[in-house]
Amino acid sequence: MAAMGWLTPRRRSATARSVLAGEAAAEAARKTSQQLELEREAAARAEPAEPSVPEFPVVGDAEAAAFFDLDNTVMQGAAIFHFGRGLYKRKFFQRRELARFAWQQAWFRLAGVEDPEHMQDARDSALSIVKGHRVSELMSIGEEIYDEYMADRIWPGTRALAQAHLDAGQKVWLVTAAPVETATIIARRLGLTGALGTVAESVDGVYTGKLVGEPLHGPAKAEAVRALAAAEGLDLNRCAAYSDSHNDIPMLSLVGHPYAINPDTKLRKHAKAREWRLRDYRTGRKAAKVGIPAAAGVGALAGGTAAAVALHRRRR
User: Fold this and answer.
1) Are 241 and 226 in contact (CB under 8 A)?
2) Catalytic residue among 71, 244, 248, 264
3) Residues 150, 143: Cα–Cα separation, whole Å
């Protein structure tokens, strides 16, 4: 009994100590939690508030629109060269012209810039090729050429930017030196509002081989955007413009939200100096640094040219 009497008080004493320890731990936890909460609140008050980033594009802003250059901004390569490939396939011209188109396209993709002499030569060639053909005929062929050579060359990143403006209820226009008929086909296929492009003269629905004015290039693009904005009741300070080329600096400078997309060296430097937004959807470190398109794209072009030469040799 003595042993039992000795054990019982000790057992009760241990239980009491356990209860005391539990209560003490709970109280300490509450105090610690309150202290931590006070410290977090103090730290939050001490940290500078992050600047709020306004929503862009602004949903429902009817006075805003977006203007996208086409060649190497929305689409890899130049539309007029792809169009030329399609016309060659349909025997609109001979192999000599195809070789010139292929060389100009290779230069454009490798250099990542527009060569004015090449672009002028391409336009002159295109005008001479379509002279005497009906506008409706070239529009129908243009639909086929889009599916054959252009659909797979749309930059997904740029397409997403355009869609963001559409989703915000804004109009989206292509602005390009390519023929307006070609640009309109591309705009329609992408679900865009429309296109500003070079206008070729036609009489009674037949191409004359001349232009109306000059190619929509450089400053002419800015004038086209300015004229369309006035007609549409747009506030250019609330509009956005996207391009890869320093030739489009006049257009980009016209709007409140300029973007440099896959920029050439001159545009990249200009955009950084003015803190314009930049996006580069080309792949590979070299492409990002010096403006060269992805190796896969160059390989595809080389393969296509080689295939054309091989086909010609077999025919001979």
Assistant:
1) no
2) 71
3) 10
